[in-house]
Amino acid sequence: MSTPVVSDSVLAANEAVRADLPFADAQDFEDAERGFLGRLDPCVVHAADGRVVWDNEPYRAFLQGDAPATVNPSLWRQSQLNTIDGLFEVVPGVYQVRGLDLSNVSFIEGQTGVVVIDPLISSETAAAALALYRKHRGDRQVVAVVYTHSHVDHFGGVKGVTSQEDADAGRCAIIAPDGFMEHAIAENVYAGTAMTRRAGYMYGAALAKGPAGQVGAGLAQTTSTGTVSVIVPTDLITHTGETRKVDGVLMEFQLTPGTEAPAEMNVLLPGFEALCMAENATHTLHNILTLRGAVVRDPRIWARYLTEAIGLFGDRMNVVFASHHWPTWGRERAIRFLSEQRDLYAYLHDQTLRMLNMGMTGSEIAEAMTMPPALEAAWSTRGYYGSVSHNVKAIYQRYMGWYDGNPAHLWGHVPVEAGRRYVAAMGGANAVLALARDAFDEGDFRWVAELVNHLVFAEPDNAAARALQADALEQLGYGSENGTWRSSYLAGAAELRHGSFGTPVSVSPDMMRALSPEQVFDAIAIRVDGPKAWGEKLSIAIALIDDGTTYLLELRNGVLVHRRAPVDGAGVVLRLPRAALVGLLGGQMDGVPIEGDPAVLDRLMAVLDAPDPEFPIVTP
Tens digit of pLDDT for each residue in 124-143? Predict the structure, then answer.
């Protein structure tokens, strides 16, 4: 591999970061190492078939010493912290395994068993974490699993620490915030293909780990790639102040819907004076709108819930920990940490609204936004995962939508058509390349990326354009403090040079089996090719043999609607168990009794589109 070339402008910008931030402050490193009990050596986890689903060793190998020229020094520091792995004691009786997935898993010891909080993404990494805990703390039975929120890195490994049978038998409670399943399914299935494809950019899934490639995502290093599982909660928390006592472990909950996730909650452990902040307060500025796509979050309510947490729990805790990063010990330090996190989201919200009401657009506000000196200097508020720039645009989007009010932007050309016109207006491909190369030499890589993007979309086979665009994206990545921006830039460069790397992971079978009947029907409805189905009019009845529930699906005007109704009069009737219902998504109805005209089912399948997990991003 050739030695990366780093432009003078990126070198200067990275040196400015090194000069401006308090790199001599080692408190985070002391906190990240505190309470260390042991680690997997090597820190590698395999699936049953031998496939590696987690490997922290490459990060430990290269993330040493000072930042190289190809990495923003602040991001390098954050990645060094995130690479510290192992089992750690938070306080006696409360333990975390960190550095074994994108998230942390926590173990709370009861009288005889253990409560698990947020069992990672994959069953394999969760099982490895539990084994590491048991090696040092004894073979305790898992008596409860708490999902703090509806993102997959906080529940996907559940079957690595317990089983469906134990949950069904009441031997292991599965505790989650109200609305958990609805939001977990909606995010991972409805827009799952597009989100997962974009997540491949965001986390740099196809990039080599190293100083010229993926160095971490800011929130942690990367995502595991094992088996995603889910067990439907057996106990829902519906309001703040609810408590549960499991095996002597008292838990007090604060519901925080609409913050980092649509369904989320913080957990106080009064007996340990420890507060779990889920993902509402971590050692980074988080996302108001993640780069992979999601529902825009509400920074106003996020800040208010952090204020509420300080009021509810501030005088009853001596340590704050979360499902990412390392804890903060001492009441005064913990409250300062929570207060700075609160001020971060409140400031971004309020200042965006102030400037929005002065007529500024999202991109203009993002460029004008300056953070208070105290927040700019705090390591925990730096933009390693979320960024000030894309969060401000998300807040604008939340209130004002995609349209900035300028009629010239109301009906713009699509990228290919706009690209052709821009290239023609600038005098053709060679003229565009000449302008872009001048901008590259001047270090204006943002302008290079914008200029050459038009040329790539106008002439996708133009090798010189693709190469220059890749070079520009690479330089933007080398200077980025944000881990997901860096990965996105470098992933775009990789695809321009080598073609699509596709989608590294897909929706897990466990998630598909967890769909309710209504969610299955909704998932089918969003695959209907409307124009192809305009002339179709058909009805299909679904009779679930598990409980006798019947549904009627009707297709007309290119819309598939569903409702609970008798099977009488439908063109075809399918009688099947709920577990087989998900087969409708792929037309896999083998062995299912069909009453009526089988051609009706074929007609429905003929108008369904299959999602494309390799759709282009940096090319047309």
Answer: 999 999 999 999 999 999 99
